[in-house]
């Protein structure tokens, strides 16, 4: 294959920050809204939550005629099947991706890596070095921010501008924003990030319980899914649509 896909990841060394959900929503946006060829590499061993979600969704579709019809109509509109999800580990990801892409007849546009939340996991640092763009979710919590800033500083120091790595840009963004919180907390952190020359997106992902709702848990409205585009109103109100617009501008899509 001549065309090399853009490699990206939502990464943070703090667990529970929503990396896997963001990966799912981003991949679905790129595939089912923008019609791109997308590959998701689930390296978050051993839980491999995206692989497991795909399997649960397949079962949910088989039991629901409405979802079967939705899947058929989506294919007719895009002329594309659901994006593939492969199970891997950080140390094997590069080889697994190459094997997969070599076997495909069409070039891929984007590869998204879902990585473990621990930098010490074997292969994580090397896989990060292979990425073209890294997006770091933040949460306005002191413990979360301390860990996030340490991670972001490490990435900036070791990878950005290093000719031995592929990373072109790193952006941070607010995830799980609770609008009941004082806005000056965010302003304070952003001023601090500015002094560190770290780039922060303007869009913010709102706290929504619906982020965790799967096909089997809903009345037909799609929220988090690997097989379907999420509900448009949900994407706009949660801030995910705005975030994906910023990401697409960054990566040149």
From TrEMBL:
Coiled coil: none annotated. It holds the Pfam family CbiA. Gene3D superfamilies: P-loop containing nucleotide triphosphate hydrolases (3.40.50.300). It comes from the Bacteria. Residues 8-214 form the CobQ/CobB/MinD/ParA nucleotide binding domain. This is CobQ/CobB/MinD/ParA nucleotide binding domain. It comes from Alistipes shahii WAL 8301.
